[in-house]
Design brief:
heterodimer; A: 253 residues; alpha/beta; elongated; B: 119 residues; 5 helices; 0% strand; structural constituent of ribosome (chain B); plastid (chain B); Ribosomal_protein_bL20_C (chain B)
Amino acid sequence: MAAAKPTVSSFFLTLASSSNDPSSSSPTTVTALPRSRFLSAGSSPKFSIAHSKPSFVTSSSPPRHKLPVRCQQQQNPPSIPPEQRWMFEESEINGPDIWNKTWYPKAADHISTEKTWYIVDATDKILGRMASTIAMHVRGKNLATYTPSVDMGAYVIVINAEKVAVSGKKRTQKLYRRHSGRPGGLKVETFDQLQQRIPERIVEHAVRGMLPKGRLGRALFTHLKVYEGPEHPHEAQKPVPLPIRDKRMQVQK
Amino acid sequence: MTRVKRGYTARRRRKKIRLFASTFIGAHSRLTRTTTQQRMRALVSSHRDRSRKKRDFRRLWITRINAVTRKERVFYSYSKLIHNLYKRQLLLNRKILAQIALSNKNCFDMIFNKIINQK
């Protein structure tokens, strides 16, 4: 990702300011919407927008064992007229086209060992609100690099899971159901009973319901670590406290 | 009517279909009838998804922009950002905004501050 350079920002700011006062006549003003960077004022676009689409082979068939992967071949560099070359950085002229291809993460962008680890203390936190924030962070929806098909999220540790709170009469009335698969095998238990038995399952159930269901969702779920009590074995990952924005997450006493 | 042998016409037609589906997995590229069906499904998906692609990408850009705006400032969101963007008559579309937010964070911050400060 390019570091801050004044050229790109000034380009967009002149665009912004030019759209506000149309009478400005700076040489970098573009008359059309900025779909192509190479539209000079007045003249028709003579320069091809960088095409990174592979050319398709339809009728004439190459030998079956040797299909060329055209998208991996050298792409046409965008042809910028020399008088506009000062506006663009080196990476934009010779590098890949970032404006016509939405960013997709490569393997180096989501290495598990370099992901952030967050920690939440569940004591007296409302179950659903906490689970919602956890799910957002596990899925990666708080990041600019969010991609629905790739695991870009962080790891979250939950401690003191047995102290999680619910409002109203949910403690005795909220039911957790599971079915063994056999007829008549519906097992029901209340929040209270489950908390006595396996307290981690409550938080896990809540977060799993908020993660996507599917292969990726199941993989994301493994990034959630719930523990009863204040101890957790992940000190080496140096977890950071999870930033909580919800004002109503703590139980009002 | 004279006797007409069917000859090579069917084979030539199926060869084209087989070429199309030549990269499909397993029986989908080997068995003729399966190949025809899979080619049909592939073309249908392709047709339908050409419109979907536009929707999907816009959705992705909106989610990314939303994530960045919420991180920048408390009690601010994508909806408010776009409203202020339109009020200030800025022409940046969601695609460009999302790409700027990813590639050039400082530039995005500048745009963001401009939108907020003088809305």
